[in-house]
Design a protein that fits this description.
Structural class: alpha/beta
Distance between the termini: 31 Å
Mean pLDDT: 87
Low-confidence stretches: none
Number of strands: 5
CATH architecture: 2-Layer Sandwich
Length: 188
């Protein structure tokens, strides 16, 4: 726990950013019966019947000191999807960083083997070397600020029935854009 807290005490440094990462499932649910909109004198009516449409995975990366979030919706939650997401952190969102401190839980897919199973050995090694991995304690995932952001995302954006992956992506993109555009003196 102290290691994670020490990481959070580091001052902002664009060359050595501290990024938190987590993932969460989102069940796709279609309404069984159409809802009735609110109108004067009547509350909205939502039937409790629903139809399951599968599950998507939400990857979240955030840099707490800069107030930036990066969210990606994937069909599955596998080692390969994790490795591809982490590659985006390194090459797309932090290409100029010398070393990225990545705070995350110690889920079984969060390992060097994910890079080697997804990319050629030279690329896997390059990616592994771009990061300093800091794992939250087994029962301390609450120390991961990306988990907190996922709860905010779920409460502000995904707290209702959404039936398709496309709609989840649209909603999350709008939420991310709005949340990233809040005033923060460290943002570009």
């Amino acid at each position: 726990m102290e290691r994670v807290l020490d990481v959070y005490k580091k001052p902002y440094n664009a060359s050595f950013p501290v990024v938190c990462m987590d993932e969460s499932p989102k069940q796709l649910i279609q309404e069984g019966q159409p809802s009735k909109a609110m109108k004067p004198g009547y509350e909205a009516r939502v039937d409790y019947e629903y139809v399951r449409q599968g599950v998507v995975n939400i990857f979240m990366a955030n840099e707490p000191l800069k107030g930036r979030r990066f969210v990606e919706i994937t069909e599955f939650k596998t080692k390969k999807q994790w490795a591809v997401f982490v590659k985006k952190i390194a090459d797309l969102w932090y290409p100029k960083a010398e070393k990225i401190t990545l705070v995350m839980d110690n889920f079984k897919t969060h390992a060097a083997s994910a890079f080697y199973e997804t990319f050629e050995p030279a690329e896997a090694k390059r990616l592994w070397d771009r990061f300093e991995f800091v794992y939250t304690p087994k029962h301390g995932s609450w120390l991961n600020m990306a988990e907190i952001e996922l709860h905010v995302l779920n409460g502000q954006c995904l707290n209702r029935h959404i039936a398709t992956m496309k709609k989840v992506k649209e909603e999350v993109e709008a939420w991310q854009s709005n949340r990233n555009n809040k005033n923060n003196p460290l943002c570009d």
